[in-house]
């Protein structure tokens, strides 16, 4: 009996210690639907490296681009196929306040006609502190499914929220239940 109590206390102590170890951390919020991607092609982009002019890129932008590339193409294997290399893509970057937006698109000329790509790229919203706030890969929808405002903006009552918004029907319903709900023929 005493051994069982000691075993139970020891098991409880271990479980409490494992529940929140010092190494565990809160994962950042990703795919925050409140963040809208800007139109990446509304303005023409400056092609970095196209001319013989120097360009300056700050470390925050470089880190955001690096985070997006490593998330999209996580493999560091040098023997990966052409279409899995960072050079096989084009990148557009837009900075808005504390968010850096990165669009990754396939560069069809890089790998040549021997590779048929089905990749549609990705979009990232990355905070200036390096956290991925939102990611849309390929053809994933940017907006959440369903209406963004329920019932055209009319707030739902607590009763509607409890049953998922199914409207209530009055008991008489306009049809007699004695005849199974069939309309009366006159």
Structural notes for this entry:
Helices cover 22% and strands 15% of the residues. Strands 1-2-3-4 form a four-stranded antiparallel beta sheet, covered by helices on one side. The protein has a domain at 56-144. The longest helix has 18 residues, at 2-19. It is of the alpha+beta class. Mean pLDDT is 73; it is low at 8-28. It is extended and about 85 Å long.
Question: What layout of secondary structure does this protein have?
Answer:
Elements lengths: L1 H18 L39 H14 L16 E8 L2 E8 L1 H4 L10 E6 L4 E6 L20 H5 L24
Antiparallel strand pairs: 1-2, 2-3, 3-4
TL;DR?
The protein is an alpha+beta fold.
Low-confidence stretches: 8-28
* Percent of sequence in beta strands: 15-25%
The H-and-E topology, N to C, reads as HHEEHEEH
Basic shape: extended
> Helix amount, in percent?
10-25%
Widest sheet, order of strands: 1-2-3-4
Total of DSSP H or I helical runs spanning 4+ residues: 4
Number of strands: 4
Rounded to the nearest angstrom, the distance between the terminal CA atoms is 83 Å
SS class: alpha+beta
* Radius of gyration over all CA atoms, rounded: 28 Å
- Whole-number mean pLDDT: 73
Main beta sheet: strand number and arrangement? 4 strands, antiparallel
Features:
186 residues; alpha+beta; 4-stranded antiparallel sheet; 4 strands; 22% helix
């Amino acid at each position: 009996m005493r051994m069982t109590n000691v075993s139970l206390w020891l098991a409880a102590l271990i479980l409490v210690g494992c529940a929140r170890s010092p190494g565990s951390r809160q994962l950042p919020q990703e795919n925050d639907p409140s963040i809208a991607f800007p139109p990446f092609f509304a303005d023409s982009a400056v092609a970095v490296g196209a001319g013989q002019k120097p360009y300056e890129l700050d470390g925050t932008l470089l880190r955001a681009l690096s985070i997006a590339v490593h998330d999209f193409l996580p493999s560091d294997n040098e023997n990966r196929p052409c279409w899995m290399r960072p050079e096989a893509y084009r990148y557009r970057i837009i900075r808005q306040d504390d968010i850096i937006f990165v669009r990754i698109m396939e560069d069809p000329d890089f790998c040549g006609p021997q590779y048929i790509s089905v990749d549609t790229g990705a979009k990232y919203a990355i905070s200036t502190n390096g956290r991925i706030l939102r990611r849309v890969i390929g053809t994933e929808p940017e907006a959440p499914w369903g209406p963004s405002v329920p019932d055209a903006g009319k707030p739902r009552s607590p009763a509607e929220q409890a049953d998922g918004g199914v409207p209530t029907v009055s008991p008489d319903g306009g049809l007699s239940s004695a005849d199974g709900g069939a309309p009366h023929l006159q």
